[in-house]
Amino acid sequence: MTATIIDGKAFAARVRAQVAGHVTRLKDDHGITPGLAVVLVGEDPASEVYVRSKGKMTVEVGMKSVEHKLEADTSEADLLALIDQLNNDPEIHGILVQLPLPKHLNEDLVINSIDPAKDVDGFHISNVGLLGTGQKSMVPCTPLGCLMMLRDHHGSISGMDAVVIGRSNIVGKPMAQLLLGDSCTVTIAHSRTKDLADVVRRADIVVAAVGRPEMVPGDWIKEGATVIDVGINRLDAPEKGAGKTRLVGDVDYESCAARAGAITPVPGGVGPMTIACLLANTVTACCRANGLDEPEGLTA
Ligand code: GUN
């Protein structure tokens, strides 16, 4: 079998175009411009790249983008004061605090100080609880992007056996909740799972989100299964020249693609969907804040 490649880059462009259409309507019909604030503490180079990219795409879809870059030694009180200010700013509909935070800051405390209605990451404990009980919530962007791709590829995923490898709060756990919400039979596997190969071999859907380069080999994949690779790992690539690197996912792409029915590539799969879903969540938050119908197809 040769797998269908699920083109996340093209899909994300479609989602951003939909978002841009909603932004235009909000502006033209209601005089409202959705606003997204991103807070970055410290100078982690990878985080700076993400934040720049988020800001650029926010502006491209017509939203207001605000960036707050704080020194690495910013106190918790100062960060909480900024979040309070953003919580109370009527022009800001979404707030994202880039993770990881420097070690002296309590991540849970900071995240839970964001107004849940503006928590476009879906990390606030209220949103986690709402998602877990099947209620309307803000849904974490990466799992939402994966769900959109699965629904688009399969139509319905009801009744399918899904395995999520990884149990993080950002991806693994919310991904499992979303798959359960779409009536999959869900297994969450992790580093202590016995016989991971056997567990993965039973799955119609495999979502790999462990952050270990190429850890899932093709012979774990059931013939025809759909493989969603959330991993973005940078490896040295001396074959490309001195100091060069390449990006790989959590699955071994070539061997998995040889058995899968469909697979997301790295790069160009899940990655672009995450920012597209952040923009979608910001429009959703803006509509809810203003008592307007929220866009269809952009939420879980
Ligand atoms: N760091 C890596 N991924 C994410 C994300 O989705 N949201 C936030 N806030 N920080 C991150």
Explain what the structure shows.
With 300 residues, the chain is α/β, with parallel strands linked by helices. The chain folds into two domains: 89 residues, Leucine Dehydrogenase, chain A, domain 1 (Rossmann fold, 3-Layer(aba) Sandwich), CATH 3.40.50.10860; 131 residues, NAD(P)-binding Rossmann-like Domain (Rossmann fold, 3-Layer(aba) Sandwich). It is 40% helix and 16% strand. The chain is built from ten helices and eleven strands. The strands form three sheets. A six-stranded parallel beta sheet has the order 1-11-8-7-5-6. The protein has a three-stranded parallel beta sheet with strand order 3-2-4, with helices on both faces. It has a two-stranded antiparallel sheet with strand order 9-10. A hairpin with an 8-residue loop joins β9 and β10. α1 packs parallel to α10. The longest helix has 23 residues. The two termini are 31 Å apart. The mean pLDDT is 97. The structure holds guanine (GUN). The site of guanine has 8 residues, from β4 and α6.
